[in-house]
Amino acid sequence: MQRALSQVSRAVASKTALPVLANILLSTEEGRLRIAATNLEIGITTWISAAVEDEGKITVDARLLAEFVNTLPNAPVELSVEPSRSVLTVRSGRDKAGINGIDAEDFPVIPSLDGETDAFSASVDPQQLRDMIAHVEFAAATDDSRPVLAGVLTRFEENQLTLATCDGFRLAIRKGALSESLPERFETIVPARAMREMARLIGDATEPVQLAITQSRNQLLARIGETEFLSRLIEGMFPDVMQIVPKETATRVEVGREAFVNAVRRASYFARDNNDVVRIQVNPGEDELMPGTIEVSATAAERGNSQSFVDAAITGAKDQVAFNSRYLTDVLAVVRHGDIMLGLNGPNQAGMVRYANAEPDDSYTYVIMPMVTSG
Amino acid sequence: MPIRLLDERVIGKIAAGEVIERPASALKELVENSLDAGATTISVAIQKGGSGLIEVVDDGAGIPAAELPLALQRHATSKLTEWDDLHRLASLGFRGEALPSIAAVSDFSVRSRTADASVGTELDVVYGVARPPRPVAAVTGTRVTVRDLFGNVPARRRFLRQAGTETAIMVRNIAAYALARPDVAFSVTVDDRRSFATDGRGDEVAAAVAIWGTEVGPAAIRLPELDESAAVPGVTATGWIGLPEVTRSHRNSLLFFVNGRWVQNRPLLFALEEAYHSLVMVGRHPVGVIRIALDPAMVDVNVHPTKAEVKFVDERSVARAVSRAAHRALSTARPNEVPEVHLGDTTLREPGMENRPISLRPSTPGQRAWGASPLGDGTGFGPRPFEPKDGAVTGLPVPAVRSGATVVPEPEADPAVPARPVPVLRVLGQVNGTYIIAEGPDGMFMIDQHAAHERVMYERILSEMQGRRIDRQPFLDPMIVELTHQQYGAFERSTAELEAIGFQIDPFGPQTVAIRAMPAMMRGVNIGERLRLILDELAEGGTGESWLDAVAISAACHTSIRAGQALSLAEMRELVAQLEQTEQPRACGHGRPTMLHLSQGELEKQFARR
Q1: Which residue, A51, A84, A106, sits at the end of a domain?
Q2: Which of B44, B73, B269, B481 has a 20 to 30 Å separation from B9 between CA atoms?
Q3: Which CATH number fits domain B4-198: 3.40.50.720, 3.90.1150.10, 3.40.50.2300, 3.30.565.10?
């Protein structure tokens, strides 16, 4: 019950005009206890096994219940609600609490996955989904200039799932396999914040995650083991991301992840005071046997400057380009294995980051618009 | 009608009309004569706006009896003998038209005695008709009395303004001479009441205090001598300017003298005000007296008969000299950067929290212009008299103003407070999502987070522009923004300026633009929405000395942290640290204050600890 409460409480509204949203719903359902919470953005429902003596339901303050339960000894807990009174009585051994609640009828209805009325559904490997979300969520917009950009484009097509985010300056696309092929193509936009919550809920789960769109086509439902996750969707048109991905790159650099990450990080400390500008100078080797180098540098007028040189396998011309260091460190934090492929197209065209030993389907692509610096 | 020569009186009247257009011009000529005669005391009396009486009494060299009749003939002057002299002129008058012109249109009388004469001579001229000179008892010097000016030119009289207006013009003119020549004691009497009197001891700030009021004294900062790298060859600017706290709604208290002559020259005004730019609220003007010395051959004073306008051979270098000196003065001589808050004495005794206004009073009267004192007046406990020994008052030090004493203030020598614009502050928290509360070496500071960040952004924009290294972050995919008609108009007017500060915006259909790149420093804001706000402000005219500046100020304002935005402690510390780095941390680009100070002394007083 402790674990269920802490999972569900992620969806409890912290500041709300509707007091009932600060509560969690407890109800008996087919011999189990259903625990649910929603802040109208997302909703989380979970079921735990229970010995139901009488049917009943109530909502109580989420924090108070969780805090009380957390300190109880590890023993069965007895919950009871007296008919016609909105008080939840919690008993465990010699401890007892009466928590004043709000009638369950006031709680918003949280749709549940039923497999029949859903407009659409698919299933995907949980760890793959979690990894996919991690690869894209950071590139979603954090301001509200274009609401669709605060979301993750989620596309189901045949046996493939594609997630994409773009905040106007950079773009992340990650593709992954679905457990089974789908009859129709489907596309929607899920808030990036909800995606992050979903990834957290997935945790170490091993059972496939069932994804579905509700009949009204305005909510995403995900079943993760005994828990269901619900999110509203963002309406609107997502930019045509494939259009933005450069078709080819003039300079292709393969570089060791560790060395490159550290070089960028060192430069970013100096770039902080200079609009986060980090310069990357690509120097190909003199012949095919000689490795090339990339120089990562940053200058802050007041603080000083740094240069780091990293050996790299370079094909293509010498090039120099400036990037916002955050856009690089963000992606380098999620690319966790192997070498990195850096594709550059000069100082004014979008550059690209991929895994060097990419699978044939280019499962991950990260596109960054360089900065234009004068002088 | 046969052609004939005009008779002398008609010529006189015509000439007088050119030289003497209003009482102030007559007075000006007389005072300049007195100064040219080496007077150390000049007394001026005015009645009925000058139409009744203008009298100038000096203790100068006087006019020898034999030369007195000649002085009243046209083109008689002691200051110029040949054409070439005109360009090397160091005296104020030269054409020799003044006295005869005045005498042609008034009941005129001049009495004069030289030091070596035993008696004086008096000569009356009534509307151009001279009476014979006669010996009189007189002190050394000259007294000119002009009555009933334009009595014989009714048309001219009708064109004069109200007596009060004519008087104001005359008093302002004499004030200018008094400021130009602090070594001469001027006194002005209007309708038998003293208007002002300077002491003639040579201190220019003391002269200004006598004319403009005591608040000017402590605010005056001298223009420093520029070192060789900054100096403009051939031009020196000296004098003093006021701190930004002392401002006026007009420019009458900002005077320029070129080689001792008061001039009105807009480029010079702009060069000076530019140095105050963003320190002084829009519509307010600084005070000051700036003397410019340059080779007389480099300036043409004979542009206009009243000599109020001048032409410089190299106007830009003169403006540069003024601007550099002012910048240097303002950046080095600021005694205390933060306006201080005083709580009204009676606040603690009045019941009812909401009816208990806290009177926020900046530490000098002039700072009220900042609007920091909305409740300071009319609440019954407005500004209290200044108490110099009161430890609470750590605002601008106000030394007692003594005539003749140098009253230029020096920064308080408090070893505990290092002489930096913003003291080291420890951020305590945030009030109302808008104000950062911090502890400093002397009490408490309240910082307006929006104004503070706006100042930081504004200086960053300026420094990037000056360094010609603007970092732009282009979009992968342009951001399309629809504008109103007014916004689009402002956009069309500002395209080049927006580009100069780091935007790249193209027209994109009717009343729609595509933002292709934004200034890298503005990362993290909803730039489409902010652009609309920037254009709204610009559509209303903007604020700034140039359009580029207006665009920069507006962009800084609308892309900075807003009021009501909750900040973490770390963010507040960062903001305060950035503010400390700015050159002018006290005011945002629009001139609003960034911080207020509640001193330790004031806190102790309010809590009745002493």
Answers
A1: A106
A2: B44
A3: 3.30.565.10
- Could you tell me which chain B residue has the CA closest to the CA of A140? B524
Distance (Å, whole) CA B337 – CA B29: 44
Whether residue A251 sits in one domain with residue A224: no
Identify the contact set of chain B against chain A, taking CB-CB distances under 8 A: 467-477, 479, 517, 520-521, 523-529
Superfamily covering domain B422-610: MutL, C-terminal domain, dimerisation subdomain (3.30.1540.20)
Nearest Cα of chain B lies from the Cα of A256 at a distance, in angstroms, of 27
Of B257, B250, B246, the C-alpha closest to B292 is: B257
Beta-carbon separation of B468 and A374 below 8 A: yes
Q: With contacts defined as CB-CB under 8 Å, which chain B residues touch A372?
A: 471-474, 517
Chain A positions in Cβ-Cβ contact with residue B524 (cut-off 8 Å): 142-143
Q: Residue A374: inside a domain, yes or no?
A: no
Which residue from B468, B472, B526 is facing A372, i.e. has the nearest CB?
Answer: B472
Tell me the residue length of chain A.
375
What pLDDT score does A294 carry? 92
Say whether pLDDT at B361 is over 50.
no
Q: Do A244 and B476 touch (CB under 8 A)?
A: yes
User: Is pLDDT above 70 for B310?
Assistant: yes
B479: chain A residues, CB-CB within 8 Å: 145-146, 168
Within the 257-316 window of chain A, which residues sit less than 8 Å (CB to CB) from chain B? 274-277, 301
- Tell me which residue in B470, B477, B521 faces A168 most closely, judged by beta carbons: B477
Instruction: Note whether A228 and A250 are same-domain residues.
Output: no
With an 8 Å Cβ cutoff, are A146 and B528 in contact?
Answer: yes
- Per CB-CB distance under 8 Å, the chain B contacts of A165 are none
3-class state of residue B327 by DSSP: helix
Q: For residues A91 and A131, state if they share a domain.
A: no
Contact across the interface for B477 and A371, Cβ inside 8 Å: no
What pLDDT sits at residue A7? Answer: 83
Measure the CA–CA gap between B190 and B194, rounded to whole angstroms: 6
Residue A111 lies in a domain: no
Q: Which of B476, B581, B583 to mutate to test the interface with A (most CBs of A within 10 A)?
A: B476
A186 in contact with chain B, both atoms CB, cutoff 8 A: no
CB atoms A275 and B520 under 8 Å: yes
Closest CA to A11 of A49, A44, A33: A44
B83: pLDDT strictly greater than 80: no
Domain that holds residue A290: 246-368
Contacts of B302 (CB under 8 A, 6+ apart): B86
Is residue B544's pLDDT more than 70?
Answer: yes
Look at residue A299 and give its three-state secondary structure: strand
Size of interface A-B (CB pairs under 8 A): 70
Residue B593 has what DSSP assignment? Answer: B
Q: How confident is the model over A127-180, as pLDDT tens digits?
A: 999 999 999 999 998 877 788 999 999 999 988 999 999 998 999 999 998 888
Is A251 contained in some domain?
yes
Beta bridge partners of A224: A227
A170 and A261 fall within a common domain: no
Do residues A252 and A231 both lie within one domain?
no
Strands B53-58 and B41-47: antiparallel
Average pLDDT for B75-83: 55
Q: Is the pTM of this model over 0.90?
A: no
CB contact, 8 Å: A71 with chain B? no
Residue A172, token pair as written in the block: 């992340």
Q: What pLDDT is attached to residue B277? A: 73
Residue tagged 């507006």 (tokens)? B554
Tokens matching residue B452: 């503070």
Q: Locate B230 and state its tokens.
A: 């900054």
The domain total for chain A is: 3
3-state secondary structure of A320: strand
Q: What is the pLDDT of residues A238-286, one digit of tens each?
A: 988 888 888 888 899 999 999 999 999 999 999 887 888 999 999 988 7
Nearest CA to CA, how far is B391 from chain A (Å)?
38
Reported ipTM: the value is 0.81
The hierarchical CATH code for the domain B208-332 is: 3.30.230.10
Beta strand spans in B449-582 (E): 471-482, 504-507, 512-519
Parse chain B into domains and list their residue ranges: 4-198, 208-332, 422-610
